[in-house]
Amino acid sequence: MRIRIVDAFTDRPFAGNPAGVLLLDSGPFPDDAWLQQVAAEVNLSETAFAHPLPPGGDADWALRWFTPTAEVSMCGHATLATAHVLHATGAATGTVRFSALCGILTATTQGSGDAFTLDFPTAPLTAVPVPDGVAEALGAEVLSAHDTGPHIGDLLVELTDERTVRALTPDFAGLVAHSERGIIATAAAEDPSRGYDFVSRGFFPRVGIDEDPVTGSAHTALAPFWSPRLGRDELTGLQASARSGLVVTSLRGDRTLLTGGAVTVIDGELLA
């Protein structure tokens, strides 16, 4: 079985967020325990598994995502990586429709298939009191906190400025209790002329990922957070991890479009 590693939300190798991608035969998914074992072996923030669906339905491919320790209900970068592999192998052209735990998702590309626009549900933000212990675990002042709803299950926290977001050295054990999935820390860009409007970092120790390099799904919450504040529906976010990556967001009411590039870096064979 072929397995590929794709760097997503980047236009060059060894940047963005790497995802494992396995295209399976038609029919039901393999046993959950096997899927989880493969994801643990790949040991990236997510590994995507997809199989083709019968023609004539609402979706073309069924799609699931696993971290090294758990299945997740929404993942942007591994969806982008899967669409990239489908186009690179000739298994799909144009728009690809995926059936996932969070509903029907689409990925559209123009031309070579090196960049895709994902259509995801917008996270329903709800302002909440800053939970006790979050600022201490992050090691920074928190200006506001927002619940992001059931699909991603994160706590979105606004910090004072870009430098603070970049300098975070969290107590990961201290963050585990404060969200269903993880913590998204964000601030406005210090200098938008550098090509991005806001920065973020994502910490997900509860699902086995201390820091995610570039979290596409988090941008379904970052877009409705920043677009009203900055007065534009279309923004560019920089996830300021060590690998770094750019996500272009376009807020469309209850849907958010996420655009980014992808590069295959490993193409091999899974023997187990």
Automatic annotation (TrEMBL):
PANTHER family reported in the protein's UniProt record: PHENAZINE BIOSYNTHESIS PROTEIN, PHENAZINE BIOSYNTHESIS-LIKE DOMAIN-CONTAINING PROTEIN
Cited NCBIfam families: PhzF_family
Protein's name according to its UniProt entry: PhzF family phenazine biosynthesis protein
Family note: Belongs to the PhzF family.
Keywords carried by this UniProt record: Isomerase
Keyword Transcription appears in the UniProt entry: no
